[in-house]
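Hi C.,

You asked whether I'd gotten around to modeling the 301-residue construct. I have! Everything is below, sequence then structure, no commentary in between.
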Amino acid sequence: MKIAILSRNENLYSTSRIVEAARERGHEIDVIDYVRCYMNIATKNPSIFIGKHELNDYDAVIPRIGASQTFFGTAVVRQFEMMGTYSVNESVAISRSRDKLRSLQLLSRKGVGLPVTAFAHDTKATGSIIKLCGGAPVVIKLLEGTQGVGVVLAETQKAAESVIEAFRGLNANILVQQFVKEAGGADIRCFVVGGKVVAAMKRQGAEGEFRSNLHRGGNATLCKISPAERAAAVQAAKVMGLNVAGVDLLRSNSGPVIMEVNSSPGLKGIEEATKKDVAGTIIDFIVKNASSSNTKTKGKG
């Protein structure tokens, strides 16, 4: 099988591990910097080029689209879909998961457990949205933030009002969420492949840090998850339409609550914590499922 991984940097751990796993299984795999691609869309025969080379002979693509390049990256994935190439995560699903507000609305509609979340545009509603979330402390998030950037814990009503007003002054879109104190600065990352949780780890924030992101000094350990947590992670990935997803959840007094569904989850932390070949699992899933007939959107939407 000939596979393309869409990534800006072939030396990233996640990219290099997927390449290694594919080659160990005898497959041909190329790393393509999707930002360098250009597309012919005004024809009955859609095509993608990088330099003078046409990318028309791949059986499957693995999108590793950076958050800052979501618009162009998903356009490239969509073009591959129009060419009949199987994408392990489809363009519509990636776009859906990257929109934090839309993803939470979709999860809520399907009955997936979430922290109480409020969203408003009018600054006069600041007091009301804080109250909706149970009052301070509350977590305030930029819709466009990643890896814990743009996430603030406001411990008092005044602090929450100040942060919200500051973000509004920058014309930034934000969410205000209930602070799940009982989680103790830890979350669970469930790695879902093909509708199954194939690995799970507990991420604990550094001392004095409520965010558990490994990029912010958190540490990861092997974690045994409950049936309810497993079911919530699988359902969240399904709602997003993602075959490969990192689902982040908190252990609250009311059960597991989903914080985020990531369409390009990193492999380093999960593989080191669990000692599992997650990259190989992704390749095995692609081999079993790669077919243009399994591409639901085929570039639509």
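If it helps when you're writing up: DSSP finds nine helices and 16 strands in the chain.

Thanks,
B.
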